[in-house]
Amino acid sequence: MDDSVDRHLARWKGYAPFDERTEGIVTRMQFLVRQLHQAKDRALVEVGLQQFEFETLHWLVAHGGRATPSQLAGELKISPAGITGRLDTLEKAGLLRRTRGERDRRRVDVEISDLGRELWTGAQRIRGEVEDGMVGALGVEERDALNALLKRMLLAVEE
């Protein structure tokens, strides 16, 4: 059975100077990543989060639910002014709260709220279902083999 990449390769056969095997692998990876992005975007819409909200909550959850604005700005690679605006929006939506440090009142901590954690968890659940559905086409041994092969490729380009 042909997939969309087989049809893509057939259209370009004889016209483009590429190795069909390499083009097939790379194009399939691109198409799968596109499908993941679209599904993950739908998950955010379903729970009512925007991408920037999810990213901020995701980082907070990954770091124990609490951080300083400067830690968030650094991790999310946005300016201090940008993080202030983002935190204002998230705080008004009830997704996080800012509190003064107990020892140093000049310090501000950002903490995910119960609502923020609930929405983040809902988005993660939906995203996980999409990912499971995608890799579910493979058996356990095939998943292990694919994971090992992708790791080897990634290590090669990360060096």
Could you walk me through the main structural features you see in this protein, from its secondary elements to its overall organization?
The chain is mostly helical and 159 residues long. It has a single domain, classed as Orthogonal Bundle (Arc Repressor Mutant, subunit A). Helices cover 70% and strands 8% of the residues. The chain has 7 helices and 3 strands, in the order αααβααββαα. It has a 3-stranded antiparallel beta sheet with strand order 1-3-2. A hairpin with a 7-residue loop joins β2 and β3. α4 crosses α5. The chain is elongated, with a radius of gyration of 21 Å. The two termini are 37 Å apart. The mean pLDDT is 93. InterPro entries: HTH_MarR-typ (IPR000835), WH-like_DNA-bd_sf (IPR036388), WH_DNA-bd_sf (IPR036390). Keywords: DNA-binding, Transcription, Transcription regulation.
Write the layout of secondary structure elements.
Elements: H1 4-12, H2 20-47, H3 51-62, E1 66-67, H4 69-76, H5 80-92, E2 96-100, E3 108-112, H6 114-135, H7 140-158
Antiparallel strand pairs: 1-3, 2-3
